[in-house]
Fold:
Amino acid sequence: MTIRRRSWLPAASACVFISLVYALFFGIAPGSAEGHSHHRTEMTSASATESRACSRVVKPRRQLQCRASVLPAAHPMSAMGVPDYGGGRQGHVRSRDLDSLTGPAGTPDEQFTLTAAMGTQEIAGSIQPVMTFNGTTPGPTLTVEQGDLVQVTLRNVDIRRGVTIHWHGVDVPGREDGVAGVTQNAVLPGQEYTYRFVVPDAGTYWYHSHQDSLRQIRMGLVGALVVNPPPASSADTPAQDLVGVVHTYGTRLTLNGSSAETAVTSAPGSVVRTRFVNTDSGPAFVTASGPFRVAAIDGFDLRGPTDLTDTYVEVPAGGRVDLLTTTGNDNIRIGLLAGASFVIGPNPAAGAPRLSATSAFDPLNYGEPGSAAAARQQFGRVTRSFDYRVGQRFGYLDGHYGNWYTINGRMIPDVPMFVVRQGDVVRLRFVNNTTAVHPMHLHGHHALVLSRNGQPSTGSPWWVDSIEVKPGESYVLEFNADNPGVWMFHCHNLPHARSGLVTHLMYDGVESPYLIGRVNSRLVNQPE
Structure:
């Protein structure tokens, strides 16, 4: 697709990202659009909204700024943002419809149905209103095998604003990504939608709604997805496999919906893999009362992991980490540093030492020395380079004055969209110039961490789809652009996304037919 600047927009493409933000911030878009809006309709609805939103702004200069910030009706994401080509090729390429980027046909190896509904559930001793998959939160853990063709049917009973399922960390085909207004419309009450994809990589992943996601994730529309490798010898496979879904309900931090300890009987000599999935907007801190190894991050196994003690692992929002322990004659506790846990051993009812740790795990130099540098050689020559500099400044957004997040110094609607072509080798540099921690998540891809603050990665290859960038930090990553689509690229601290820290990676030529914002009188696609 050739990306064009519309002649009626201000110089900084003042309307290209607008409907996304309206959906993110306010849950509705001004005006109504059936299908793709015409320019005249968009401008009319924007003018009416400008007058209402900015009526109390007195100073002429502020009035102009306010009116320029007001967001009109919905737009497709593929037409949003200021194009950033990263030094790569530009120009016309043959268009592809996002709806053509689907999973393969044929009989699925695994089929699931997930039914989304309102409900109540006992959480830490009190009954709370929740949103559920198949009557519970977290939803059921889906277990499949690497290479399986998976089919999942989503049914919405009564989630009023609609629901989707995003397969967090799974590099699914573009149409199967489950983002309202980007890869599909939200599934309204009484409707259903089917996802089909081959799971390309073994590991620990999760699923969650990507419609009104701040609210729906908080209320429990989450679950784990475990992809096992093909059958191997028993010597290579842990004797036991546990899943711990980290989620905060109200103020109660839980594992699998429980704030208590869970007893797990394990014979001496057994190797136990515990998969932690952080579904919260802030980091989770996990550790064990005995020696453990970090086996995997974001689904990808680490090479040459070694035993750690007195160490905690910080799991970014949206991230996953797998820990390996070996059962001895005494019980071991593994779990949240200040919360729920598993007690594993021959007699788990007898308890285990409380959790404590003083040292932070650093994946930059953990595991087999030099293997990260070797992994970098698979990429070849970099063909595009992008900066993703996170900042913050005061200004107007949709007629509201505040301190909003910026990307590369730009505030919505002028944030960059990162344009690639299939086959590109992409280098990405994150810089956090704010005082907040930002867990950055790129849909549809895994990236290799090359360095942090200029220090190279010297241990195991460290592959991520969710990376935590602390204040003042910078990271350099690389990835192959090998999965065409239109991909959200945002902070997974979801209040930050609603405050402007969201953009997208798009493949030149891929066009989405979906709209973010008000599509009709019933449907408002609101990805965040």
